[in-house]
Amino acid sequence: MPFDKLRGRLSKGVGGEGHPGLPTSLSASEEPGGEGQLFTQPPDADDERSQWSAAEDEAAEAAEIAEVTATSEAALPRSLQDAALLQQERQLLDEMAQLAEQYRTLPDAKTTYLIDWIRANLCPDLPPFGMPVSGPAPRWNERRVLIFTENREGTKRFLFNLLSQAIEGSERAAERIEVIDGLTSSTRRQEIQRRFNSPPALDPLRILLATDAAREGLNFQAHCADLFHFDLPWNPGRIEQRNGRIDRKLQPEPEVRCHYFVLPQRAEDRVLEVLVRKTETIKRELGSLAQVIDDDVERRLRQGIRHREVATLLDELAQVSLGPQQMQRVADELEAAREREQDLLAQVSRCQSLLAKSQAWTGFDELAFRQTLSSALELLGAPPLQPTQAVHGQPAWQMPALHERAAADPSWHATLDTLRVPRTAKQSVTEWRREAPLRPVVFADAGLLSDATVHLHLEHRVVQRLLARFRAQGFSEELSRACLLLASDTIPRVLLLGRLALYGQGAERLHEELVMVTARWIDPTQRRGPLSAYGRDGEERTLAVLDAALQQVAQQQPSPVTQQRLLASAARDVADLLPLLLPRATQAAAAAVEKLRQRGEQEAHDLQRTIEQQARRVRTQLERSQTEYQQLTLAFDKEEKRQFELDQRAWAQRLASFEQDLAHEPQRVRAFYEVRAQRIEPVGLVYLWPETN
């Protein structure tokens, strides 16, 4: 930092006692949006200033210093404007600047403690700061640490430089530290998040420096249970949001450690320590940090922590509590939160029941799913899924490199790229594909935040493409119209499969199911009429035999004579069974249409109820803001009142939009589930031939 700016900052006296002749307040500078905000209100992730470049930050800081200095000097009594006294003060500032320059590259007490903690917990063989590495490069263990700091261009840069010096000479030192701030692009943030959450054995990243740009929307809990607040924000909510980056679900560690520094000789730290304790007390009593408390504390600390006001601030923070009206607001907030939580728990229970019903109805089975994918791979001329080493205790399989086959479709490159780790900004596509192999695939959730494997499900891009040949049409040039299976049964059986598809507006597929008719197969030369469909018991027995035949590995193939015999009979078998299939498909279509109608009505009703609940909540808030305007805005400054009035207008506009939503959205949902067309087509024949015949 240039020394003239340092002098200006020291002259300003923010946080200190200041010169006895200087004014005790900065008047206009203390108004929100006025001068001094960069010092008392550092920009957070929601502030456009967090997106400023270093040059813009420095320009704004210089302008603030100049204006505050001019305001302060204009308020000086004439007796203090004596040239000799001013010269003496400037000389004192020069000496302070020289001391700052002398020590600016050395760690302070907080940084020294942090470096020692890293040595003890992340890299035990690392020598103390300033001492060179002797012998082999110190190795790092698998722990990680997340460090939050307020200032992007000041403290963050200072800390990054010192930590880089401290770990210099260790194993892969240049890859151990990363930074996320307001200028980090979205792609870069996702890459850093992926690296920080990847297994430590696979990625050298161990230390992540972050400003408040990373306090929301990014999760780092997979392999990190230690967090440091290098400096604390003056807002309890932001402290809670920072801690939430690692103290959240899918955190595998039983204990999460969130550290902050307290220097006894610093008056500011005594205030911040009380702030942290107060935050913990409120959370323990209320279950969460109430917004009214959050706002109250932030308002008290908005203009900074001045040494002469420390005792007053400590008393005020210790006495922060809820009055009758605030208690009612907190009760309303918590009641609404409890209602939402209860509603979510009920929804989770309904989803669990729906999942069980869906699995029973579709007959989805992991083994059958995996075998179907392997069959699709074999149709492409590739080997099936191969078991590989278990990952996180879960069985895993390796997908064959389809793109490397001779005459392979080039588009498989892009499809299989979804099985690789995400590409970094520095990698070309060619380098990425060469360096990032296809990851193993799994079929069950391990309950961990990890990118070591890819969880294949029905909607995954690779799965969708492999199953497309089975779903897009009943058969293609690679698929046969008939299938012959050997079964552990004594009766030859035949199944005719058909596909029923229902379509809504825009040819949206609303429903699809297989319908079938089963019968005992009789040689055409011995038939006295068409084949007769089985009843319920016979059909259930046939389906059980079919499932068993599909699961077992065939030890032998049907004889060529049997194959020719059934092939010659296939056309007649279809002619016999198709008239029996169509009525079943029509009946299934009618049942599906009714269920779709009921689903549309239910979703329309749920949507209408949700809109009405939101409208009531907004209407209540608007009416309360109008009737209690004076009381609610009593402690507001000009900017807060303006924002409150903007909120009122937004609530009024939202109420008007709710009326339009109620008139159109439920009907739009009903229309979505209206069946506009249906299609019934035979898919193929399945013969179940006795193994002993």
Radius of gyration based on Cα positions: 35 Å
Largest sheet: 5 strands, parallel
The tally of strands reads: 13
Shape: elongated
- Mean pLDDT, to the nearest integer, reads 81
Uncertain spans:
1-36
Strand content: 5-15%
- SS-based class: alpha/beta
User: How far apart are the termini?
Assistant: 92 Å
Describe it for me?
This protein has 693 residues and is of the alpha/beta class. Among the domains are: 3-103, no CATH class; 109-261, P-loop containing nucleotide triphosphate hydrolases (Rossmann fold), CATH 3.40.50; 481-693, no CATH class. The protein contains 20 helices and 13 strands. Strand 6 (386-391) and strand 7 (394-398) form a beta hairpin. Helix 1 packs across helix 3 and helix 13 crosses helix 16. The longest helix is centred in the C-terminal third of the chain and has 68 residues, at 560-627. The radius of gyration is 35 Å and the shape is elongated. The model is unreliable at 1-36 (pLDDT under 50).
Comma- or semicolon-separated keywords:
693 residues; alpha/beta; 5-stranded parallel β-sheet; 4-stranded mixed β-sheet; elongated
